[in-house]
């Protein structure tokens, strides 16, 4: 299955302009024979929205409806803001055949350093696995991947593919951290890892790009350029035989993990 | 520091953040020193030399070498430049109203006069004023508020002075500018390091521990001379106001910058 990873440069707070950009990318990916196109975290809105989160919730919902219509013959995975019961979420939407197939709400909202996500968003609480065009798939949003338990739960749920939507700002050493996280997830859980980061700059903060794809053996299959907008295509396949040889799939003791976590938690470690 | 990556990021920063405001030009003051030379090289690389205006703004006591190096820098990067002497207005002010002002006040007035001229040229040319203060200066408050510390955007404000030298090498800043003693040149013979009492190498090493690695004051005093640590920490704390917007007395439920929070790139 061919997937397009669209490392785009969204305009901050300009949903109409971003929709037009997404539409162009979707048409190009379809022409390139891709069955799925992946966009970064908050691709429809931009990242450092601050108070604009509340201003843009309704417009974002309207444009998500428009985006659904573009998913008739290519699946679309896109980050945007979402309102549910008067709460705002930083969400990833998987659209297929004109419908919303799955939503992942970001579980780990970074609120430290330059990040202030808990100020604006409520947290999701699930890492679900669903059947996407790639096979069994779990979605992570950026910081989710920095908690190894996220990928662990996805893998325990049977994921063959973990797709990470990201808006990662540049600071010294960040690329190596991400490459290491992505490769470790792929290798440890024998899953395809697709990491889609964005490019561009907001308020002096540069998003460094470098989107990449690892196969289930931890091998780097494809990487986009650093710093600039670029769309790459990757051929993904699931290799059940390899997975059977992975120590995680073969030997992992989820029952032990569950019991031990419970014991540790009860002992007051939380 | 990965200078290749840093240059790529800074070129994009200048190009994109200026473009978002609807402009494509930059104005900067050239002191003849290494910081403004680095910023000049970056602006020329990001916007094209013809879209940059460099102003050299000497006072009668400025070292003649400063103007010569400003000229050398502008010519190296092909940036159009202009020399405007600020002596008449500075002298008029102090002679008539403040004849007893000490050098520090005179130096601050000169720095503000220069910035006033840069902002006038910003309006004249339709370009943004690009800042030339590095991270060391900003942290120590070693600059004049509303003077050289002012700008619309600053590409080098997160780079320590010692790293500026590495960047200058990559950007091919002329040797004489890299090699000379850093000075604000507000009065004859002024030297940054003599005035601060420590070399930039020592100061930057300490600042990196304190600011970037967040090592505690206590631990730093075990590793470095406690007098030195005290002096630097005091400078950083006492100059905090220079790095912030003015305080606003809170009255409403939604005070600017406290609850009313929008990115600078709002609606651009």
Q: So what's the oligomer here?
A: heterodimer
Order of helices and strands of chain B: HEHEHEHHEHHHHHHH
Rg of chain B, Cα atoms, Å:
19 Å
What's the CATH first level of chain B? Answer: Alpha Beta
Radius of gyration of CA atoms of chain A, rounded to a whole number: 18 Å
Please give the count of helices of chain B: 12
DSSP, total strands of chain B: 4
CATH superfamily descriptor of the largest domain in chain A: Carbon-nitrogen hydrolase
CATH topology of chain B: Rossmann fold
Explain this structure to me?
Chain A is built from eight helices and 14 strands. Chain A is of the alpha/beta class and 270 residues long. Chain A folds into two domains: 2-238, Carbon-nitrogen hydrolase (Nitrilase/N-carbamoyl-D-aminoacid amidohydrolase); 242-270, no CATH class. In chain A, helix 1 packs parallel to helix 2. The radius of gyration of chain A is 18 Å and the shape is globular. Chain A starts with a strand and ends with a helix. The relative contact order of chain A is 0.14. The model of chain B has no long low-confidence stretch (mean pLDDT 96). A four-stranded parallel β-sheet of chain B has the order 3-2-1-4, sandwiched between helices. By secondary structure, chain B is mainly alpha-helical. Chain B has a single domain, classed as 3-Layer(aba) Sandwich (Rossmann fold). In chain B, helix 3 (64-77) links the parallel strand 2 (52-56) and strand 3.
């Amino acid at each position: 299955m061919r997937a397009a990873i669209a490392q785009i440069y969204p305009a901050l707070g300009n949903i109409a302009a971003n929709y037009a950009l997404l539409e162009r990318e979707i048409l190009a990916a379809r022409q390139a024979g891709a069955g799925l196109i992946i966009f970064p975290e908050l691709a429809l809105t931009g990242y450092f929205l601050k108070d604009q989160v509340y201003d843009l919730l309704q417009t974002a919902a309207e444009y998500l409806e428009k985006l659904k219509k573009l998913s008739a013959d290519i699946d679309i995975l896109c980050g945007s803001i979402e309102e549910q019961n008067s709460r705002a979420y930083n969400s990833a939407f998987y659209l297929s055949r004109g419908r919303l197939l799955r939503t992942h709400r970001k579980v780990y909202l970074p609120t430290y350093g330059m990040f202030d996500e808990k100020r604006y968003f409520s947290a999701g609480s699930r890492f679900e696995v669903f059947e996407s065009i790639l096979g069994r798939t779990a979605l992570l949003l950026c910081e989710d991947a920095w908690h190894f338990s996220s990928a662990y739960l996805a893998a325990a749920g049977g994921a063959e593919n973990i797709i990470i939507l990201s808006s990662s700002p540049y600071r010294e050493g960040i690329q190596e951290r991400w490459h290491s996280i992505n490769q470790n997830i792929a290798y440890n859980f024998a899953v395809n890892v697709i990491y889609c980061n964005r490019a561009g700059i907001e308020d002096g903060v540069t998003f460094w790009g470098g989107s990449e794809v690892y196969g289930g053996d931890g091998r780097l299959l494809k990487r986009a350029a650093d710093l600039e907008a670029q769309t790459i295509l990757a051929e993904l396949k699931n290799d059940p035989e390899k997975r059977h040889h992975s120590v995680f799939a073969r030997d992992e003791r989820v029952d032990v993990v569950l019991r031990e976590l419970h014991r540790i938690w009860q002992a007051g470690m939380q | 520091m990965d200078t290749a990556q840093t240059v790529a990021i800074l070129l994009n920063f200048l190009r994109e953040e200026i473009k978002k405001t609807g402009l494509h030009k930059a104005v900067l003051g050239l002191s003849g020193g290494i910081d403004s030379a680095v910023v000049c090289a970056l602006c020329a690389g990001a916007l094209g030399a013809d879209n940059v205006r460099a102003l050299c703004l000497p006072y009668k006591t400025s070292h003649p070498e400063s103007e010569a190096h400003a000229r050398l820098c502008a010519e190296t990067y092909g940036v159009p430049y202009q020399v405007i002497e600020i002596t008449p207005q500075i002298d008029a002010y102090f002679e008539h109203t403040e004849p007893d002002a000490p050098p520090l006040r005179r130096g601050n007035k000169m720095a503000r006069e220069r910035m006033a001229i840069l902002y006038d040229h910003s309006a004249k040319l339709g370009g943004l004023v690009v800042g030339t203060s590095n991270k060391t200066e900003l942290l120590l408050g070693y600059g004049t508020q509303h003077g050289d510390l002012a700008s619309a955007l600053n590409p080098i404000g997160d780079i320590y002075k010692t790293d500026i030298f590495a960047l200058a090498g990559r950007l091919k800043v002329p040797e004489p500018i890299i090699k000379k003693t850093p000075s604000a040149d507000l009065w004859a013979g002024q030297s940054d390091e003599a005035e601060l009492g420590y070399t930039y190498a020592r100061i930057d090493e300490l600042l990196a521990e304190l600011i970037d690695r967040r090592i505690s004051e206590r631990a730093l005093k075990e590793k470095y001379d406690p007098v030195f640590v005290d002096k630097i920490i005091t400078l950083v704390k006492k100059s905090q106001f220079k790095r912030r917007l003015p305080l606003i007395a809170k009255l409403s439920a939604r005070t600017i910058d406290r609850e009313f929070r929008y990115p600078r790139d709002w609606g651009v």
